Amino acid sequence: MTTLQSSETSAAALGTATPYAEVKETHSAVVFLVGERAFKLKKPVDLGFLDFSSPAKRLRACQRELGLNRRLAPDVYLGISDLNDVDRKPLEHLLVMRRMPAARRLARLVRIAATHDDMDPELRWGLSGLAHLMAEFHTRALRGPDIDACGKRDAVADRWEANFTEARPFVGTTLDGDAYADVCTLARGYLAGREVLFDERIHRGAVVDGHGDLLAEDIFLMPDGPRVLDCLDFDDRLRFLDRIDDVACLVMDLEHLGSAASGQSFLDAYLHASGDQPPGSLVHHYVAYRAFMRAKVACLPGAAHGPWVASALLDQARRHLDDGRVRLILVGGPPGTGKTTISAVLAENLGAVVLSSDVVRKELAGTTPDARMQAVFNGGIYSPDWTHRTYADLLGRARRHLVLGRSVVLDASWADAGQRAAAARLAEETTSHLNQFRCVVDNAMADRRMLSRASASDADPAIAAEVRAHFADWPDAVAIDTSVSVDAALGQLLPRLQPWRRAPRPVRSRMLPD
């Protein structure tokens, strides 16, 4: 067996309140904590997704766990020892570890922080150090064709389906049937239109041999830096993943522990340290995947927590999938109704891309957005042919964002039913959620806005009157009163886009230009 290394952990480091001996049990292992050591014993179980049913398999599992975890915590994973019978024949194999102080366990620190309004600076510092550690770990992690294959869209879909199948026996008892069905629908819908995104992630080198099960219970924020334990070792394919999937596991867990702020702090620090810029929808998707997987595990016999934990995790998965919907949002109306202002604020609030027909039209004409052009109703660059070209280019740009998981807000009049039908086809082809809003305001106020504003639009009150007269009925659009403040207008929009949010994200109050 491997020679045991020396340990720096002392009784003082463990804390006077720490019992000398403890026993911890999971569905697949028993951990004996004795003094400065931890001894991990694999249970003789076959759970389908892991098989420790024979001594040889348990030994291989110990060896694999030792080697993989030394990547992140070499001074914690000390070696393998035998548990012998009276004849000194091995009965079992024990993974020997340095015992970490419970007071420095991230889960404990986060539970304490969750009771305060402001995050503890020491915790924030520790999460930042952890984020940098994981970013460096992912930078040097193994990559290759076999690893890349596990990051493809179809491979991620297969993992979802395997979890759906394994969770199905608990639907109607431990898991709510409606919530389960919503998760299945939303996850499959996201994946259906995002093959380009997953291929692009592979091209960027984002798929790595990672940790695979990053949970706060297995992380210790020590004075000399974090220690990350217990990586996923029983199935390499589940550890070959997008680095955002890896960190999303901890984001999910911190949120589940009651500190979404800690999860966001860790995620922000990781993105800064790694330089990665994934679409927000992908982060939501992977957080949801992790929450659903933990919900399934919480249903298994011997799980440490009750049914309420599985239910909370299932709800967490559903909320993140809903927040992570890729949306195509049409914001329309005649000139002067405030659609450009509303589009910009809505895109900022949702983290979406905003595209404007006025800007696209000017770019196609070879001029700058602020250049003033003579506006003639149905003439010049506002002729039907030019308008058709503008909207086609607008939708083409939107497609490139949607397939990469970025929601898009399209700022245009959308006066023509045929153009709206083309947008609906684009949403269907990219499995994006279509939302349609028509800005409504008194004609006199709209005219005053046009005369006082500076924008890419060339419309004046006369043009606006023509647009209003020829505006095709838009029964699928939700009317938004834009005679009010931006906050109030946004308050009409967000409940229709974010039903799982308890309250809209605050936006500084200001009036639409009048």
Explain what this protein looks like in three dimensions.
47% of the residues lie in helices and 14% in strands. The chain is an alpha/beta fold and 514 residues long. It has three domains: 11-98, Phosphorylase Kinase, domain 1 (2-Layer Sandwich); 105-323, Aminoglycoside phosphotransferase (APH), C-terminal lobe (Aminoglycoside 3'-phosphotransferase, Chain: A, domain 2, Alpha-Beta Complex), CATH 3.90.1200.10; 327-497, 3-Layer(aba) Sandwich (Rossmann fold), CATH 3.40.50. It has a five-stranded antiparallel beta sheet with strand order 1-2-3-5-4, with helices on one face. Helix 4 (121-140) packs across helix 11 (260-274). The protein is elongated, with a radius of gyration of 28 Å. Residues 1-12 and 500-514 have low confidence and may be disordered.
Topology:
Elements lengths: L10 H4 L6 E5 L3 E6 L2 E6 L12 H15 L7 E8 L5 E9 L7 H8 L7 H20 L4 H5 L3 H15 L9 H16 L2 H9 L3 E3 L9 E4 L2 E4 L7 H4 E3 H14 L3 H15 L5 H19 L8 H17 L3 E6 L6 H12 L2 E4 H8 L19 H19 L5 E4 L5 H13 L3 E8 L2 H10 L8 H9 L8 E4 L4 H12 L17
Parallel strand pairs: 10-12, 10-13, 11-12, 13-14
Antiparallel strand pairs: 1-2, 2-3, 3-5, 4-5, 6-9, 7-8
Helix pairs in contact: 4-11, 6-7, 6-12, 7-13, 10-11, 10-12, 12-13, 14-20, 15-16, 16-17
Give the C-alpha Rg. 28 Å
Name the quaternary structure.
single chain
CATH homologous superfamily of the largest domain - what is it? Answer: Aminoglycoside phosphotransferase (APH), C-terminal lobe
Structural class: alpha/beta
Using the coordinates above, name the CATH class of the largest domain: Alpha Beta
Query: What's the count of strands?
Result: 14
What distance separates the N and C termini? Answer: 79 Å
Give the overall form. Answer: elongated
Report the average pLDDT across residues: 88
Give me the CATH architecture of the largest domain, please.
Alpha-Beta Complex
Number of separate structural domains: 3
Beta-strand percentage? 5-15%
Sheet having the most strands: 5 strands, antiparallel
List the strand order in the largest sheet.
1-2-3-5-4
CATH fold-level topology of the largest domain: Aminoglycoside 3'-phosphotransferase, Chain: A, domain 2
Helix content range of the residues, please?
Answer: 40-55%
Total helical segments: 20
List segments where confidence is low: pLDDT < 50 over at least 5 consecutive residues: 1-12, 500-514
